[in-house]
Specification:
With 526 residues, this protein is mainly α. The protein has two domains: 414 residues, Up-down Bundle (Sodium/glucose cotransporter); 78 residues, no CATH class. Helix content is 73%, strand content 0%. It contains 22 helices and no strands. The longest helix is centred in the C-terminal third of the chain and has 36 residues. The two termini are 38 Å apart.
């Protein structure tokens, strides 16, 4: 299936509009040169709507739309736990983590680790995050986006990789976080609108034109096992989503690490006007998270049901082709709009990831090694070079690294899970236990990887999410032992008495609504 002329016009109009808006919002006043706070944290002036929209735009990319839809095709609604549990996690981040981070006035997560522990921990974790963001996250977003474009348009995958990378560079390289965050409301509107349209079209097709409500009932009737949120041990995908372990186990570690301690995500909140503004943005993002399974997972289940009919226009050859296959059902014009929404999700995440890479490299690696350099202009230039270098590397390694994985989303989760336990232990104890020290943090960082790899090799039958929880407890144990044995004066320890954890009535009301919705959803689809 290819795009028609009208589709291409819509796509080009979107691209021109996005680049134009990004350059317009990131321009500087006459006589003011863009400094590091402007480039990396949008001048610490982001409003709540930009924070919330940017959190979702950064998170929902090709790995979610293509990868999670593919997992929906294979597993069903159970994969939506990544989205719905994230909504609850965001509330915890807004209530307990952001007050500490914003009070310390940090630019990056490694900077917090240096304040809390020492320069060794900051350097080790900076290198780790640079590698993870470049070779896993940035690469996965590019690869899944390029394969979707290839499926939909027939464009060569290599050319698609290059086109996405070039688009992301045009849109984000000049303006930094301000260009990314202030255009993300435009991106999210397009993403949600396009996602709802493809969900409507796929459900209507399943029901032979009887409408989306009838289509949803057809899915329930024809694929009831796809609507089990909690999988039993006999399920083929239990190894990826281990039953109740999803609700009370390792997924908490995965989500706390991603939403609370991940530069790629938390950078938006660090650029907020105030703590209250950041918290309002967090609640906004949590509400949007409740919608995501409808936009992402349901089309994957619809693709499964449609592909069971050999005469159907939807024939899925591999799971990650599920979403592009149902997208082909859209009529001309609508197809271009939805395709533009898909591209919006991809380039927004690429721009966000590039900005985070440049922030960590410039402020946590380059600047400490070049202490004589004080020029803000020079550091912003280094940040742009770092962004460009990262995207070029990702384009080169995308196909060799990810070309052979049928479910890229699950691959990303398991690989990230090798490091997640240590990250959670380092931050949680660093935030809330004064005796945690740098030796313990380094032991947790190394132990997380070694214990995770060892656990996978020795006990391959243990679901990776359960392994994440077990390794987290082991990392906490290591840090506690070293904290007791190697007692030191912790000058960087967080004094919780100086942190205001109070929240507005609106935050509490929004949190109650979100928690109530989550209880209802799990009750309905248990």
């Amino acid at each position: 299936m290819g795009l028609e002329t009208l589709d291409l016009i819509i796509l080009v109009a979107y691209g021109v509009a996005l680049v134009g808006i990004a350059w317009f919002v990131s321009r500087e006043k006459a006589g003011h040169a863009k400094n590091t706070e402007d480039y990396f944290l949008a001048g610490r002036a982001l409003p709540w709507w930009a924070i919330g929209a940017s959190l979702i735009a950064a998170n929902i990319s090709a790995e979610q739309i293509i990868g999670m839809s593919g997992s929906g095709y294979v597993v069903g609604l159970a994969i939506a736990s990544y989205e719905w549990m994230a909504a609850a996690t965001l509330l915890i981040v807004g209530k307990f983590f952001l007050p500490i981070f914003l009070k310390r006035g940090i630019f990056t997560m490694p900077q917090f680790l240096e304040q809390r522990y020492d320069a060794r921990v900051k350097f080790v974790m900076s290198i780790f995050w640079l590698g993870l963001y470049t070779f896993v996250n940035l690469t996965a977003i590019l690869w899944l986006g390029a394969t979707a474009i290839n499926t939909l348009t027939g464009l060569n995958v290599t050319l698609a990789l290059g086109a996405l990378a070039a688009f992301a560079v045009l849109y984000s390289l000049y303006g930094g976080l301000k260009a990314v965050a202030l255009t993300d409301i435009f991106q999210v509107v397009l993403l949600v609108l396009g996602g709802l349209l493809i969900a409507w079209i796929s459900l209507d097709t399943v029901a032979n034109g009887a409408g989306p409500v009838a289509g949803f009932q057809v899915l329930l009737d024809n694929a009831p096992d796809k609507f089990d949120m909690i999988l039993d041990r006999q399920h083929a995908e239990y190894v990826n989503l281990p039953g109740l372990g999803v609700l009370i186990g390792g997924m908490w570690m995965m989500n706390l690490s991603y939403w609370g301690f991940n530069q790629y995500i938390i950078q938006r909140a660090l650029g907020a006007k105030s703590l209250n503004e950041a918290q309002k943005g967090i609640v906004f993002a949590a509400f949007l998270k409740l919608l995501m399974p409808l936009i992402i997972v349901i089309p994957g289940i619809a693709a499964f049901v449609l592909s069971q009919n050999p005469d159907s226009a939807v024939q899925v050859t591999r799971p990650d082709a599920a979403y592009p296959s149902v997208l082909a059902l859209a009529p001309v014009g609508i197809r271009g709009l939805i395709f533009a929404a898909l591209v919006a999700a991809i380039v927004s995440s690429l721009g966000s990831m590039m900005n985070s890479i440049s922030t960590i490299f410039t402020l946590d690696v380059y600047k400490p090694l070049h202490k004589g350099i004080e020029s803000e202009r020079h550091l912003v230039g280094i940040g742009r070079i770092a962004s460009l270098t990262a995207i070029v590397i990702a384009v080169c390694v995308a196909q060799p690294l990810l070309g052979g994985f049928p479910q890229a989303f699950q691959y990303i989760q398991e690989f990230t899970g090798f490091f997640t336990p240590g990250i959670c232990a380092i931050f949680l104890l660093g935030l809330f236990w004064k005796s945690a020290n740098g030796d313990g943090a380094l032991a947790a960082a190394l132990g997380s990887f070694l214990l995770s790899v060892g656990g996978k090799l020795v006990f391959p039958e243990i679901p990776f999410m359960d392994r994440v929880l077990y390794v987290f407890f082991a990392c906490v144990f290591l840090m506690v032992i070293l904290g007791i044995v190697r007692r030191r004066d912790q000058h960087g320890a967080v004094d919780l008495k100086d942190v205001d954890f109070s929240t507005s009535t609106g935050y509490l009301a929004g949190s109650a609504m979100i928690v109530g919705a989550l209880i209802a959803l799990y009750w309905a689809f248990w």
